Amino acid sequence: MAEVGFKSLPAQRMSFAPPSDESITRAVIAEVPVAFEYDGFGYAVMMATPIDLEDFAVGFTLSERLVTSKDEIADIHLAEVEQGRVLRIALKGGPRTDLQQRIRLRVAEGSCGLCGVETIEQALRPLPQLSPVTPIAREAIHAALQAIGDNQCLGRATGAAHAAAFCNAKGSLR
Predict the structure, then answer these.
(1) Together in a domain, 142 and 105
(2) Residue 26 domain flag
(3) Hey, which end of the chain has fewer CB within 10 Å, N or C?
């Protein structure tokens, strides 16, 4: 599975001053569902760039404190499945009762869309069909981007924070 971690996709660049559109190609980071299984038990699913997943498995296993050293990992098998990837991780000493207890606890404390999900099938459940919407005017997009920037103090300070906001059809923050 020699992957580069991104896809080149066609896109439209929208300029505001002066208004213009340009067809371009953008590199977009690829993410796929990655399931972590320990000794045959589903543990977690998360979206990840599909490169260096064995290294990710070691780091995740250590950060979850399932092991105290990478030497406690007997094997990591990366499987490509139709919907994503599965990291099958074998821990030295075989299935452990503390791991099974931890899995039950993680499922109970999950609160986001993927937290607590144990299989790729659960992560990729069908979504409801959305109704068509009226296209948003260029001026509204420009106004919304300006308003978000004006209200995003961490983004201004660091240049690195994500921002999200609800805007009306004219681009005003709600």
Answers:
(1) no
(2) no
(3) C
Q: Summarize the confidence of residues 69-90 as an average pLDDT.
A: 94
Question: Which helix (H) or strand (E) is 150 found in, with range?
Answer: helix 138-150
Give pTM, 2 decimals. 0.63
Any idea what the CATH number is for the domain that residue 50 is in? 3.10.20.10
Catalytic residue, from 112, 115, 153, 167: name it. 112
- pLDDT for the residue 111: 43
Average pLDDT, the chain: 82
Same domain, 163 and 97: no
- For the chain, the 3-state helix, strand and coil shares in percent, each to the nearest 5, are 30, 30, 40
112 is catalytic: yes
Total tally of structural domains belonging to the chain:
2
Instruction: Kindly state whether residue 44 falls inside one of the protein's structural domains.
Output: yes
